[in-house]
Amino acid sequence: MALKITVIGTGYLGATHAAAMAELGFEVLGLDVVPEKIEMLQRGEVPMYEPGLEELLRRHVAGIEGSSGRLRFTTSYEEAGAFGDVHFVCVNTPQKHGEYACDMSYVDTAFDSLAPHLTRPTLVVGKSTVPVGSAARLAERLAAAAPAGAAAELAWNPEFLREGFAVQDTLRPDRIVVGVASERAEELLREVYATPIAGGSPFIVMDYPTSELVKTSANSFLATKISFINAMAEVCEAADGDVVKLAEAIGHDERIGKKFLRAGIGFGGGCLPKDLRAFMARAGELGADQALTFLREIDSINMRRRGHMVELTRNAVGGGFLGKRVAVLGATFKPDSDDVRDSPALNVAGQIHLQGGQVTVYDPKGMDNARRIFPTLGYADSALEAVRGADAVLHLTEWREFRELDPAALGDVVAERRILDGRNALDPELWRKAGWTYRALGRPQA
Fold first, then answer.
1. Predicted confidence (pLDDT) per residue in 328-368, tens digit
2. How many angstroms separate the CA atoms of 439 and 441, rounded?
3. What CA–CA distance (Å, rounded) separates 279 from 287?
4. 271 given a catalytic annotation
5. How many H helices and E strands in the chain?
6. pLDDT in tens, 405-439
7. Which string of DSSP letters, residue by residue, matches 165-208?
């Protein structure tokens, strides 16, 4: 008999996972405690922008013409408990207010709400990013609260989704990591992921704590690599070097690699910053805080980049922002997303605005979310409108649309042809040929 799957939490991770499980052929029930979110998903709509996700959803949501009907949604834990053989928990684990530590309240609530309805052998699979040690605690909590007792087992299966590539990363993951305590749990997860495993995705089995450490370790390594090249950009600024050429040269060393070596205004979003800080906090609780003290400097380098971009802009417009118009191209923390959480681009825009600049922002997908966070900024419906009358143009999110802009057309409407490339993604020669003064982070002479 085919497995039935539930997905608890239908945010970015959960909605993607639910749609992908339906695509893999399973009957799926998605659960959320927010009725408005469930109503939206039942219409085949997603509350965020993610390439390909809405199309995937509409292929399977019951009630949509032409769909497989394999995907339904509910607000009832009782219904979910009765339906599922495997329950994926995909709720948020934000940073605690005023602390580095991770807020586990959503995870704990999900487990406590689901457990009383688990009356038969079942597998609950955590996908949320949690502090190491959480899985062992939750396994005991689950067995104690579920009518099925120890037959309600736990596994941990961290997610590695990249915003902009989430559908691909779920259907064809570069690795599947599972932390299990029994052969039965491993067998069930092999059945769930049989299609990607057959397609070549490595299936890596380990214990609970190691599986929990994989996600935070991976994110910390990526953050370290990004902050390293941004630290080199600071040195290049001081020494009149070119960080782009430096990155190209060291990237040819296969031990280092070329990825994540583009210097800029740093990382943001809902994962890397908070995961980095939660990892430091948990290491401190375990008495291993000295092992991760370097991550504090990684975080510090990252945050410094935003201030440095503001300084470069201030200098470019003559030493002060009062009476100056600044256009900001980009609001999201990365392209192919509408996510503005901890966005370096919006942070820079906000700082310039607070210092007296007249800031106008344009982003292909993040405008509505940006307006909710920074309603006092100016917003335009196109890049051309955003730069109209600008004394400086800042390129802060590397959308393809911005790389393909016509410098001559933009030059006709700005007050000054002055562009600062905060992502080192534009072609300096192309802009200079159109009469622009081009400046990029870590490239004082480029």
1. 999 999 999 999 999 999 999 999 999 999 999 999 999 99
2. 7
3. 12
4. yes
5. 19, 14
6. 999 999 999 999 999 999 999 999 999 999 999 99
7. SHHHHHHS-S-EEEE-SSHHHHHHHHHHTHHHHHTT--EEEE-H
